[in-house]
Write a structure and sequence with these properties.
4-stranded antiparallel sheet, single chain, mainly beta, 7-stranded mixed sheet
Length: 127
């Protein structure tokens, strides 16, 4: 069992930055992928980024590539999402999640691959 808790959301102007944090507790194996997803107003949940818990492999949605950076701190059991150059279309509830099967691309981009989810944190980007 893994528990996840996101924090760091808020209101920011377009062009600004935010860093989201995800605190993980429970048993996390090095091969697991940790992912960030988001659900915008009236939209389904979409993949944002993922990182293997042991490091080395990261994946990004095209819409955030070059603006967002996913990282992890194994010692603190934390996963982060640094979001730069934010746009109004980045407005969403952001969720972190755990993928235990860890098959990589393309599976890591699929919501159904993830077993555990946090409660989400709201990010609002004003124009």
């Amino acid at each position: 069992q893994v528990q996840l808790a996101e924090s760091g959301g808020g209101l920011v102007q377009a062009g600004g930055s935010l860093r989201l944090s995800c605190a993980a507790s429970g048993r996390i194996f090095s091969n697991y992928f940790m992912g960030w997803f988001r659900r915008g107003p009236g939209k389904g949940r979409e993949f944002v980024a993922a990182i293997r818990w042991s490091g080395g492999s990261t994946y990004y949605a095209d819409s955030v590539k070059g603006r967002f950076i996913i990282s992890r701190d194994n010692a603190k059991n934390m996963v982060y999402l640094q979001m730069n150059s934010l746009k109004p279309e980045d407005t969403a509830v952001y969720y972190c999640a755990v993928d235990r099967r860890s098959l990589g691309i393309p599976f890591v981009q699929r919501e159904g691959e993830y077993d555990y989810w946090g409660q989400g944190t709201q990010v609002t980007v004003s124009s």
